[in-house]
Amino acid sequence: MNEKLNLNGAEVVIESDLVRVRAESGLVTASRTISTSTEVTLELSGPPELACAGNVLSVFSAGDFLHVLVVCGERCGDRIPEILQLAVGEVTSALGLLTEILEPRVTVVSMPGDGGFSAPDLEKSLRLSSQRLLLEGPGVEELLELHGVTAEAMVDAGMELVVGVEVTDELRERLRSEISRALGDLNVCVLLAAALHIEDDIRRRRLLGVDLTDDPAYLYSDEVIGMAVANQVAGTKAIFNFKRYDEEKPGVIGELGPMVDDAVAGLIAGCMSRLFE
């Protein structure tokens, strides 16, 4: 790739491994620190994906890390901390759970001055460029671990409701094996991923008008997902076991949000049901 753009006096050259921005009037750059110069060169970690909206250019590049560059073709450098904050917020909103894995590095470049800039153009350019970027996202197990749901935590939660038999190392190991087997089931993974992403979308207010802050009593779609996971793992009998884990919420289940807790409860309940078949 070798592309040249002019954003209201800011000359931008985009190559396969770098972006160079130059302006006679000077540039203000903000990332971890704020600096001034007449030319900025940023090395990219992977192939660039870019999009323009008005006088705002956004470039996403993913390799060893995710780099996001925003070039504002307006004389608004005096407001660059505010623009950087908005850009970070939009990147977080656009990428969702991936930001917790990839930890994007956001850099904003603008020309000096206290003029205005278009927040809608900033949002549009970031969303367009992020949508064009193909990322190898994390697996379901990695996403669960971000919530503290490790294999060991699930084994601990499962053992808390064991009655009538002694909890032994052998029993714990058998449950650990069942959890590993269940996480190899595509349908289980899809249901867990659905719960994880729905909860993240709601938490980040990407689904307007949906508020699960207090886990309202009339919400039952979370239980539908939990029952579906339990049923997929061990059939009808696991659905009854799911109700126990959903109501008592042992261990890590009680620390999770309203969608993920039921999905994990369904996984544990299903695996526990298989132990005692």
Automatic annotation (TrEMBL):
One Pfam family named in its UniProt record: PgpA
Coiled-coil ranges (or none): none
Classification via SUPFAM superfamilies: YutG-like
CDD domains documented for this protein: PgpA (cd06971)
Annotated signal sequence range: none
Domain of life: Archaea
Domain YutG/PgpA as annotated: residue spans: 213-276
InterPro entries from the UniProt entry: PgpA-like_sf (IPR036681), Ribazole_CobZ (IPR017577), YutG/PgpA (IPR007686)
Annotated GO biological process: lipid metabolic process
One function term, GO molecular function aspect: phosphatidylglycerophosphatase activity
Gene3D superfamilies: PgpA-like
Designated name of the protein: Alpha-ribazole phosphatase CobZ
Protein's organism: Methanothermobacter thermautotrophicus (Methanobacterium thermoformicicum)
